[in-house]
Amino acid sequence: MHISSTDFVNEGRILYPIGKISAASAWHAGPVDASQGDWRAVALQELIRRAEDVDADAIIDVNYVTDGIAPADESGVSLRRVLATGTAVRLADLA
């Protein structure tokens, strides 16, 4: 699976986009930053699995953001997760 944070891949010409895909790490208590490697890796692995499910050759425009929910009252715990998004595509050289 080819991964790119831009709208192109060096490994081939994009034949057609399949569609937007997204995946997330599990929810975690406390601060979670999208730049933290472990949470990004988990979200990326799930994103790759989803791309493989739709027979994609690559994922372009990959982006990471942190998502969270606040507790209903002050005794609760804030929950956070890392979301990975991108566009699944087929490559002309591999189709």
TrEMBL record:
It comes from the Bacteria. InterPro entries: UPF0145_dom_sf (IPR035439), UPF0145_YbjQ-like (IPR002765). Gene3D superfamilies: Hypothetical protein apc22750. Chain B. Belongs to the UPF0145 family. This is Uncharacterized protein. It comes from Methylocella silvestris.
